[in-house]
TrEMBL record:
The lineage of its organism: Bacteria, Pseudomonadati, Spirochaetota, Spirochaetia, Spirochaetales. This is Transporter. One of its GO terms (molecular function) is ATP hydrolysis activity. Signal peptide: none annotated. It comes from the Bacteria. Residues 45-396 form the ATPase AAA-type core domain. PANTHER family: ATPASE AAA-TYPE CORE DOMAIN-CONTAINING PROTEIN (PTHR40396:SF1), ATPASE-LIKE PROTEIN (PTHR40396). Pfam families: AAA_21. Gene3D superfamilies: P-loop containing nucleotide triphosphate hydrolases.
Length: 468
């Protein structure tokens, strides 16, 4: 679960800005909070803002950091630093995630000079109520590396760990976490205390970030999802789909349009599903699987008794019986909805989903219906959903908690700022949708009258109706 994300010197973010999933003392809807040590975390958050305010840039920052953490190497050259400050090109960008694993809170982050692809700092800290415990830290500028020797079982492990650290001293384009997980597997396999390194890495691998225009919408794992479950879920959204069909295809067919780097990620995830942790040898009912959405096609992979079976999902509609449609023949809204259904059908505990522009191509009522379903679902499930949206119909304090609403707005210098709604101290019974559209909380565009003569004003329809 995500507790907090902080980003600085990236795209429209200049000074570090923090987005928090830590719950405030608000008592409303407390049944959908997650207890983590001595704090409670939200399971849902919505982020509003005008076009170009920086909502999507926050999601891009998460995705950028996740890519470097899981792939290990930064792309160079890269121009994603804050360009409105001429000095920013040569300054480090900041990425920090505070996450909950096994009931404990950890801070993992790094700083890097994006224009050079150079990692300058990296750290992993166990966060405590009274004292923090640094598990490892790295500063490539000063050459200083430190780690908690309590993580290592004996002097031999300490010696080996020291060698691995020395190997990276001259390498500034790789993260230590990614390198030790992918290249030094024997280290943490022999030592249970070091397993936290793998758990942190796996958290980032599982972080599901979705953009509306992605070629590869993503993949996600589930313990068992049948076509009937998909059908029952999709029927509640009034798409006209009456039947869902699973048509067996080859692995090569299912993965032919997947870009090479992402294909490797999927292959690795399939190996994980094939492990003894996910499938029991002696149980014929053991089943794990994966959803793969790419280039307008939807595939489900079932790992029954360790044999992967690839199926393309097609659909029939109420008005056209026995006529099948593939995913790319469905409307943009229906395709978007299937990406979102992954959230509702997710069976993995502590999963974190981030969806940019959730309302893209969707009817307002469908977006609200989806969020209502999710909010009901998370009363019994431990998953998180973070969305960016313009959908003002969600701005209802009978539906959302005050701390589940955030705004992104640019300051006078053009830098994005993150503003929590509960800063405004509104009453719980206030109708906030109109106040938001009127600009009370920021996060809405201010228009100039470019197409009208100076002094021209459009009369308010309500005022016209009041005239005799």
């Amino acid at each position: 679960m995500l507790s907090r994300f902080t980003v600085g010197n990236f795209l429209s973010f200049n000074k570090p800005q923090s987005f928090s999933m830590i719950a405030s003392p608000v008592q409303k809807h407390k049944q959908r909070l997650f207890q983590a040590e001595d704090m409670k975390l939200l399971k849902f958050s919505s982020i509003y803002g005008a076009n170009a305010a920086g909502k999507s840039n926050l999601v891009k920052a998460m995705a950028f950091a996740r890519k470097i953490i899981t792939q290990g190497t930064a792309e160079s050259p890269n121009t994603s630093y804050y360009k409105l400050d001429p000095k920013a090109k040569d300054l480090p960008s900041y990425f920090e995630f505070e996450i909950c694993i096994g009931g404990k809170l950890y801070s993992y982050g790094f700083e890097m000079i994006i224009s050079e692809g150079e990692i300058t700092e990296e750290w992993l800290i166990l966060l405590g109520m009274s004292k923090n415990q640094e598990l490892f830290s790295r500063n490539t500028t000063t050459g200083q590396y430190s780690y908690d020797t309590n993580l290592l079982a004996n002097s031999e492990d300490i010696a080996h760990f020291g060698i691995y650290i020395n190997d990276l001293k001259c390498v500034t384009n790789k993260l230590f976490l990614q390198d030790i997980i992918t290249n030094k597997e024997a280290v943490y396999q022999k030592n249970e205390k070091l397993a936290i390194l793998k758990q942190v890495y796996r958290w980032f691998e599982a972080l599901d970030i979705s953009f509306p225009d992605s070629l590869v919408s993503g993949y996600s794992c589930f313990s068992s999802t049948s076509t009937n479950e998909i059908l029952q879920a999709i029927k509640t959204f009034a798409t006209g789909i009456s039947h869902v069909e699973a048509r067996k295809v080859s692995k090569e067919k299912a993965l032919e349009d997947v870009p090479a780097p992402f294909k490797k990620t999927i292959e690795k995830a399939l190996e994980e599903l094939n492990s003894e942790d996910n499938l029991a040898k002696d149980s014929p009912s053991s089943s794990a699987g994966m959803r793969i959405s790419c280039n307008g096609k939807l595939y489900l992979v079932q790992m029954n008794r360790k044999e992967p079976e690839f199926n393309e999902i097609t659909f029939e509609h109420n008005a056209l019986k026995n006529v099948s449609f593939s995913m790319d023949e469905e409307s943009d809204g229906t395709q978007r909805l299937f990406d979102m259904l992954t959230v509702l059908l997710c069976t993995k505990e502590n999963a974190v989903f981030v969806i940019d522009e959730i309302d893209r191509s969707l009817h307002p009522q469908l977006t609200v219906h989806f969020i209502k379903n999710f909010l009901e679902l998370v009363k019994k499930k431990q998953i998180q959903l973070i969305i960016t949206t313009h959908e003002s119909h969600l701005m209802d304090l009978s539906l959302l908690r005050q701390d589940e609403i955030w705004f992104v707005e640019k300051n006078r210098a053009g830098a994005s700022m993150l503003i929590p709604f509960d800063r405004f101290k509104e009453r719980f019974d206030k109708k906030i949708q109109k106040a938001y559209l009127d600009g009370r909380y920021g996060g809405v565009p201010l228009f100039d009258s470019f197409f009208f003569p100076k002094g021209f004003e459009v009369e308010d329809e309500d005022e016209q109706e009041e005239q005799p």
